[in-house]
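Recall from the previous chapter that SMILES is a line notation for molecules. Here it describes NAP.
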Amino acid sequence: MSLTGKHALVTGGSRGIGRGIVLKLAEKGVKVAINYRQDKAAASDTLAKVRERGSDGLIIQADVSRPEDVRRMLKEVQAAFGRLDIFVSNALGEIFTYYRPPLEITPEQWDRAVDSQAKAFLVGAQEAAQLMGKGGRIIAITYRPAGLTGGWQPYVAQGSAKAALESLVRYFAVALASRGITVNALSPGVTEDSVLNALPQAVQDGLRAWHLAGWTPMGRLGTPADIGNAVALLSSEEAGWVTGQVIAVDGGASLMNPDFTLEIQRG
Ligand SMILES: NC(=O)c1ccc[n+]([C@@H]2O[C@H](COP(=O)([O-])OP(=O)(O)OC[C@H]3O[C@@H](n4cnc5c(N)ncnc54)[C@H](OP(=O)(O)O)[C@@H]3O)[C@@H](O)[C@H]2O)c1
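With both inputs in hand, we obtain:
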């Protein structure tokens, strides 16, 4: 499956899952625009890795929660590439500034989550679609459990923002279907080399132990390369009939049933 000759933009492509997506696309022959918010060194390092893989691209600073930044970013993409085939809306946002439970979160913190996830996608997809022809691919990175459940209390803003993001994916899928552009969301499970590494070591260790014990049936956490592989699959010509879907990329984690202990589930 070659994607040679295609052009992509990955928001938050400098680190974490975004970098895994950028590098996998580069391996498939895609030229990639790598967006970052503040860590230029990480973005430059990722671009160097793109070049090591025989592809090329550029880095673009932009805060995706600001519509004017998103519009400028797409203009820079147009100037560099002339067109766009793959747009991946991945940037995490400043999660720890709005990591608050429902009874404490302020409307301003709530806005920050929605702006960096849902509004960023709204404006990004509108602008990206203008640069796309038939076969274009728009892919949002979500975390579906956060939008469907209520247990992870300090995640209320991000969870709600992801639910809005997934809704936008369905509406944009219909809006762009007649132009042959697909719009989907990928929902990674807990993934290594990501925001996970910003958590206290004890929390990281506990999460790994939990998933290795069986809550992820495949017995490991995901990697940014796993998510990059899924983006490459959705970007292929063969995925042209898949649109408006939220697809779990989680080693089976979303198949487990929290009503029962692992022992009962294993039978
Ligand atoms: N990690 C997981 O286990 C997991 C699981 C499910 C879903 N996800 C989703 O995967 C995506 C990536 O998460 P991650 O864990 O890879 O994050 P990460 O390692 O913390 O990387 C975040 C990336 O987003 C950029 N960024 C943050 N705020 C931005 C903004 N306002 N504008 C532009 N870029 C911004 C960062 O750039 P700077 O460094 O320059 O700020 C960086 O490139 C998110 O949508 C997240 O919800 C993650």
